[in-house]
Amino acid sequence: MLHTNPIRNNIQLIRSAELSTILPFSPSFYNGAVKKGRFPEPIKTKEWGKHWDVADIYAVISKAAGKPVSAPERAVNLKEIKSYLPRSDAWYWGKVKDGTMPTPFKLFSRTFWLESEIIEWLDQLE
Questions:
Q1: pLDDT along the chain (126 residues), means of 10
Q2: Per the CB 3.0–4.6 Å rule, which of 27, 40, 90, 111 could disulfide with 56?
């Protein structure tokens, strides 16, 4: 996905519509977070409209996760995890509590996991 986006002055850009594939929020949520100073300002160009610097997005995720995170990593929420392994919320939180599931992180008061850690964890369950 990212390779199709414009690159200007060595900055890789991502469109608003594609941003939710990295962080599952609505476009209006991002706009509100920008206004509150909690999310990077988009880069606006005449030919492409509103885009974000991919490095800025991953800096936000890295800070929240407490570790370096880079493309093509994604943040996934419990709803998405449950689409791969349907279990109750209590089952998942029990796994987090006993240390057998990766530790989530908070971003804008919502809970996420790094997709690569969840995929590795799911592979171990099989």
A1: 48 82 87 91 82 90 94 93 96 97 95 97 90
A2: 40
Nearest to 45 by CA among 74, 69, 16: 16
List, in sequence order, every beta strand (DSSP E) within 18-109.
43-45, 49-53, 75-76, 105-107
Alpha helices in 1-126 (DSSP H): 16-19, 27-35, 54-65, 78-84, 89-97, 115-125
Structural domain spans, the chain: 2-65, 75-125
What's the rounded Cα separation, in Å, for the pair 64 and 41? 18
Select from 53, 57, 55, 69 the least CA-distant residue to 102.
Answer: 69
Residue listed under structure tokens 């790094």: 114
Q: Which two tokens stand for residue 21?
A: 């594939």
105 vs 78: CA distance, rounded Å: 12
Architecture of domain 2-65: Orthogonal Bundle (1.10)
**Inter-residue contact 114 to 65 (CB < 8 Å):** yes
